Amino acid sequence: MTCLGRRRSCAVVAVIACVAGAACGREEPAATTPVQLVAGPSATASGPGTAGDASGVIAFPPRNEPFAFREELERKYRDGLRRSPSSTYVDLEGDIVWTQEYLRYRVNECSHDVAVQRVLAQIDGQGILPVCGNPPPRVVPFPPRNEPYAFRQELERKYRDGLRRNATSSYVDIEGSIVWTQEYLRYRVNRCGHEVATQKVLDQIDGKGIAPVCTDGPTGIWDGTSSFFNAPFTIDMWVNGTSLAGRYADRHDVGYVWGTYTGGPAIVVNVNFGDGGIRLDGTFDGPDRITGTMRVFSISGTFPFTMIRRP
Predict the structure, then answer these.
(1) 3-class DSSP state for residue 273?
(2) Which of 21, 145, 262, 284 shows the greatest Cβ crowding within 10 Å of its Cβ?
(3) Residue-level pLDDT, tens digit, the chain, 311 residues
(4) What is the four-CA torsion angle of 259, 263, 268, 273, rounded to 10 degrees?
């Protein structure tokens, strides 16, 4: 997982929530095939986890991959979280396709109201309207959670009152669906592949913290504190492919950083001083904070540490 270029800090709008129940009535889900969509939005990507196409428009993954994620989320809620089914008028395929289409408009500079109207127009067969702009290259931010949730409620009304669909059921309540679908897509448009993005979301549900997006990772300047007597320290590191590189400095020593980072919440940073070294075993606690333990080989000591990435 890479963020090419030195001293680049990345701000990630993290969306985290796991909702403990559903507001609708509960019934056992019927085994039905997905209902054919009213219209077929085209939201494809030029590669797994691409952040944009040649025109600068942020591309989204092909529809089969978010649908596979949504099926996995259904299994997670049913078998892992042991949730009961809740009632919904939007079938699983409609849920994932129209949520993705709404978010595609949002990250391409459409407001909430404009994105909602463009999706509803597609459902009514009025064609696929263009996005609102070409955002500059950067880590792709996503809207605050209340706005996609408001869209999902509007979609529920559209299926119930406009399309006159019959109620079905899902083990994932409406809020859980929108929160975790948005989080999956946030990873996807920030260069994470399908499997990596799926696992990152499942790890969040399991309480393992928020792993960084794949354009981001550990690249940046980190200020560290520790009970180690040489602290505080600073690490300026970046990722090239899966290889870590950079510079470490504390009150007494300067060394170079090396290691491998392939994604996920866990990270190991090695520091070489020439005549000794340090190993930092950490876990991302949000996108810009790493906590863990550091082992100082010269004294065979282990100390807790916290690192915060500079904005």
Answers:
(1) coil
(2) 284
(3) 333 333 333 333 333 333 333 333 333 333 333 333 333 444 333 333 334 443 567 888 999 999 999 999 999 999 999 999 999 999 999 999 999 999 999 999 999 999 999 999 999 999 999 999 887 666 788 999 999 999 999 999 999 999 999 999 999 999 999 999 999 999 988 878 898 899 999 999 999 988 888 766 788 899 999 999 999 999 999 887 788 999 999 999 999 999 988 777 889 999 999 999 999 999 988 778 999 999 999 898 999 999 999 87
(4) 30
Architecture of domain 220-309: Beta Barrel (2.40)
Q: CA 113, CA 196: separation in Å to the nearest integer?
A: 32
DSSP state at residue 295: E
Q: Evaluate whether 291 touches 283 at the Cβ level (below 8 Å).
A: yes
Contacts of 48 (CB under 8 A, 6+ apart): 61, 193, 194
Long-range contacts, 123-131 (Cβ 8 Å, 24+): 123/38, 123/39, 123/98, 123/158, 123/162, 123/163, 124/38, 124/39, 124/162, 125/38, 125/39, 127/39, 128/39, 128/41, 128/42, 131/57, 131/104, 131/105
Give which of 249, 252, 256 is closest to 272, Cα–Cα.
256
Closest residue by Cα to residue 148 from 122, 187, 121, 186? 186
Contact criterion met (CB below 8 Å) for 145 and 179: yes
Structural tokens at position 59: 């591309």
Residues β-bridged to residue 204: none
* 257 bridge partner residues: 246, 271
In one-letter notation, the amino acid at residue 163 is L
From-to residues of CATH 2.40.128.120 in the chain: 220-309
